[in-house]
Structures are given as C-alpha cells and as structure tokens.
Amino acid sequence: MGENSKLQSRAIELDVQTIGRISAVPSILEMICRSTGLRFAAVARVTDTTWTLCAVRDELAFGLQPGDDLELKSTLCHEVRLSGAPIMIDHVAEDLAFKDHHTPKLYGFESYISYPIVRSNGEHFGTLCALDPKPARLGEGETLKLFELYSQLISLQLDVEDRLRETQAIVSAQQETAQLREQFIAVLGHDLRNPLSSMMMSAEVLLRTPLVEQGMAAAKRIKTSGHRMAQLIENLMDFARGRLGGGIVLTKESNRALEATLSNIVAELTSIHPGRHIELLFDISEPVFCDSVRIGQLLSNLLGNALTHGDPAGVVRVVARCRDETFNLSVSNAGTVIPADILERLFEPFYRVADGNEHEGLGLGLFIASEIAKAHSGSLNVLSESAGTTFTLTMPADLA
Questions:
Q1: Which of 108, 337, 366, 387 has the most CB atoms at less than 10 Å from its CB?
Q2: How far apart are the C-alpha atoms of 233 and 247, rounded to whole Å?
Q3: Kind and range of the H or E element at 15?
Q4: Residue where a domain stops, chosen among 125, 145, 168
Q5: How far apart are CA 361 and CA 178, in angstroms?
C-alpha cells in the first residue's frame, strides 16, 4: 500500500470513528426504518475509490459492520456521489431505470433509497441509505424531505465534531506549552542563576584580594558581566511568567525603607559603571504601599538603560518623590533625541534600538519595567527632548 493510500485509509478510519461518536445517528437510522418500513439503514463514507460503512441498523442480518468495505462500483451510492442527486426505488422489478441494474441483483433488494451527505464546505462525505428485499411505498416527496433533513443533521454534527477535535488539539497544545513554560522557568531559576551567583561571589572575592592591575580589571569585568546576565535572566523569567503564566507577581506592603532600597540599586550600578556621574534626589517623606523589590527592579532596568544608551559624558539623574498620595520615580539622561516612531515602541517586548551598542540586551528591560508599573496600578512614560530623555513612573502611594 502506497503512502497516499495509507493516508486515505487512515482518514476514512477517522471518519468512521467520528460518525460512531455522533449519538444522534443510531436514532436517525431507527427512525428511517420505522418511517419507511425498510429494514436496513446505514451511513456510508463514499469517496472516488471506496465505499465504507460508518453506522448501520440491520434488521435483515445482512452481515455488514462499521468499517466494512464494499466494491465501490457495485453500489448505487457511487452513482449518487457522481450525480449529487438522491436515488429512490419503490419496486426494482417495476422500475424501468433499475430493473436490469447489476446492484439490486447483486445485493437482492427491491426497495431502496440513498441520499447524499454533503459537508458545509461542499465536500461530498457519503450517503444516508436504506434498503429491503421487499417492495415498499416510500412516498417520494415526504420521504426525500425526511432524508434531506437527516442528512443535513449528520453534516452539521460532523462540523461540530471537527470543531471539537480542533479545540482539543488547541487545549493539548496549550497544556504542552504550559509544561514547556514550567521547564523554561525552572532552567532559568535554577540551572542558570545558581552558577551565576557562584561566579559573582567569586568576582567579589577577587576584588577584595590584592591583584595586579590586569587581574583587578578582569575581576571587574566578571562582576559587570554577571550583573548584566542576572538582569537578563530576571527579565526573561518575568516575561515568561507574564506572557505564559500569571503575570508580574507582587508582594506589597507599606514600605518605609523604599529610599534605602533605591539607594542600594544606585550604589550597585555606580560600582559597575565607576566612571559615570549619577545624581540623586530623594524626597520620600511617607511610606509607599508597594513591592519594594519590584520597584527596585524597575529602577535598575531604567538606570541600566540610561547608563547604556545615554551620553557617557552626561549626568544621569534619579528623582524619587512622594507627594499628595502619589509616588513618582524618574530617570533622566543626556543624549540625542529619540525619534517619535521609536518612542512608540520602546515598551514592546524584544524591541531594541539599533544604535550599535554592544550591550543592548534582549530588549525586555523597559517592557518589564512597564509591566511592574501596571501591576502597581501605575504607568511608565517617556519624554525625549533636546535636554535629554526621561522615564517617569507614576503610581498611587497608598493603594492598599
């Protein structure tokens, strides 16, 4: 059997299974037998090369079971497929068109009806058919209308089964994605962060050890690179949680030590960029209800961005104020004006400004900072003018 034949055979097998799952089909076949007096009724899958039984009500002990095949050209269903029109015979022996036809002689029936089942997309699926060795008075108009309605019902149910199968495939894919997400976060959280922490601790030890100038420079580079890697990992984890999981997770409390947290972030980045001038202006006279670790992460992302993309000779200013129940945190740096079309995309994930900087990162820092702002019911905005570029967080200070 060729590959195409195997695929077609598998497709027909699935069609037989699909008809078998439609709970209305046995009732339809029973009603056909009762209303017409014919004692054999079936749903057949009919292609250009095959006839396969999908469902049957057999009061004649005809012997066919779902999945059984007949020689296509030995059936009248083949002719129904070719013409697209139903066939109905009350009495074969008295029917001029079929009294000498090979099919009634082969299968020994005198009364017969076959109606095409056509999918909503116009594809011919097969036939709804019935037969009996005895003649019958089928009453052409009424019986054909009944078969038409039943055929349409089966076609609609096939569409429902298709949509259900597609939905199940989507759900299965989503479950697989969820598993991959958990594995992804686990790798970032353990397999990468643990050795990175060890590397940074080793760099700290080296910096406290008397070294020649070349060794000291190498230790500083290790520490700087480690810090950048830690930021990348943290941003990737937040992106994975935000897009694939439950979003940015906050642990809020009325924080009176926020100024100290922010000062530590600035001190850390100052040690990594010892040649840069960072000015601080903190005026936080009241507690801010927030996740201080996340606000520190936001500042780290903004300040790291300013130090990376701003004018190396310019001053970077960090201003934090809490007034009138509103907390504001801004980071400003000198540099060229950012065009409006780029400003509109700065907070998109993985968007990076093509400025030739070798430390661009993944383009997630500003996106994560924006998500942290939203999680605090706040906003993160940017203004770029000739005097420089300023990112500003605005959020309620006491939204408990």
A1: 366
A2: 16
A3: helix 3-21
A4: 168
A5: 26
- The backbone torsions φ and ψ at residue 342, rounded to the nearest 5 degrees and listed phi first, read -80, -40
**CA dist., res. 167 & res. 271, Å (int):** 53
Residue 187 within a domain? no
Q: Which residues contact 159 (CB under 8 A, 6 or more apart)?
A: 119, 120
Q: Tell me: the pLDDT tens digits for 260-284?
A: 889 988 988 888 888 889 999 999 8
pTM of the model: 0.49
Burial of 275 (0-12, 13-18, 19+ CB in 10 A): exposed
Beta pairing, strands 315-323 & 277-283 = parallel
On whether the CB atoms of residues 146 and 154 are closer than 8 A, the answer is no
Same domain flag for 147 and 274: no
Give the single-character DSSP code of 377: T
One domain, residues 17 and 162: yes
Q: Is 396 helix (H, G, I), strand (E, B) or coil?
A: strand
- Provide the residue type at 258 as one letter: L
| CA gyration radius, the chain | 37
The span from the CA of 192 to the CA of 346, in Å, is 27
Residue 391 CA to residue 25 CA, distance in Å, equals: 65
How far is Cα 316 from Cα 99, in angstroms, rounded to an integer? 98
